[in-house]
Design brief:
- The protein has 267 residues and is mostly helical.
- The chain contains 12 helices and 4 strands.
- The protein has helices spanning 21-24, 26-30, 37-43, 53-56, 60-72, 104-111, 113-121, 134-157, 171-192, 196-224, 228-249, 254-261; strands at residues 46-52, 77-83, 86-87, 130-131.
- Helix 8 runs antiparallel to helix 11 (228-249) and helix 9 packs antiparallel against helix 10 (196-224).
Length: 267
């Protein structure tokens, strides 16, 4: 055999395998295929596999597919989620020589892990590169702060509320609750269809502009008023909406939501 580039005679090595062979057998090596059939059957095939668009579609996914189908007759995953690469705010590739690299550990020390997570999810459409900047991360740090401040207000005003005992709600509060239930269904649908970038942005706007700017501001007069029915209704509503928002935000901002959720008077 002669090399196509240089013309020199070369010899084949008969025992060289495909470079992706070890990638194809990942399920078998990690899920104890040979020694624990119950464990294997519980976790194989995977529900979802995720990787970057240009890097793995041809290699790893195909290797996983042919190895699993050849050995078990089953495909190794049900869904594939392809994401892009993280670039700087000018959409340039991050490089130390360019000085545009954002150190994830450094920004989490400054702005928090939850802020970085939200910055990486919001606007991150499948298969497309995402532009990230310290300004964007800082913006979601401010959002985390907003969650804290709202939490303090809710806790201060709902210490006597039994969330399991729904009171007779005012007409306005019943409307807010109905809108919340519709919003839950809407966000759940987006999540079920892997539209995390849409779900996270909708949660951001609902929490900031609907819950904080509208519901809390409108309920302050009921909380401070002398009408016991409206006050009880308002207390239950803001606790219910806030606790629900924390649960919806938890996949995106797990640390701040868990910390505050444990302080709520809901158990």
């Amino acid at each position: 055999i002669r090399c196509k580039k240089c013309g020199e005679e070369v010899s084949r090595i008969p025992d060289v395998g495909d470079a992706w062979l070890d990638a194809g057998i990942v399920p078998f090596s990690t899920l104890n295929y040979l020694n624990d059939k119950k464990y294997w059957e519980k976790w194989f095939p995977a529900d979802l596999i995720s990787e970057n668009m240009p890097g793995q579609a041809r290699g790893w996914f195909n290797a996983l597919m042919w190895a699993s189908v050849a050995i078990t007759g089953k495909v190794p995953f049900k869904y594939v989620y392809l994401h892009g690469l993280v670039r700087d705010k000018e959409k340039q590739k991050m490089s130390k020589s360019k000085g545009n690299v954002i150190d994830p550990l450094g920004v989490t020390d400054v702005y928090g892990t939850d802020a970085l997570r939200m910055a990486l999810v919001v606007g991150n459409t499948p298969g497309s590169d995402i532009a990230i900047s310290e300004e964007k991360i800082k913006g979601y740090r401010n959002f985390a702060t907003k969650i804290w401040h709202a939490g303090r207000f809710v806790i201060m005003n709902t210490d006597s509320v039994d969330i399991k005992k729904k009171p007779r709600l005012s007409k306005q509060d019943a409307k807010f609750l109905s809108e919340l239930n519709k919003f839950i269904a809407e966000v759940t649908k987006e999540m079920d269809h892997f539209k995390f970038y849409i779900a996270s942005e909708k949660l951001y706007h609902y929490f900031w502009h609907t819950f904080c700017d509208k519901i809390i501001e409108e309920k302050k007069k009921d909380l401070e008023g002398n009408d016991s029915v409206k006050k009880t209704s308002a207390k239950w509503l803001i606790l219910e909406v806030y606790a629900t928002c924390l649960q919806l935000l938890h996949p995106f901002m797990p640390f701040v939501t868990e910390e505050i959720y444990q302080q709520l008077p809901i158990r």
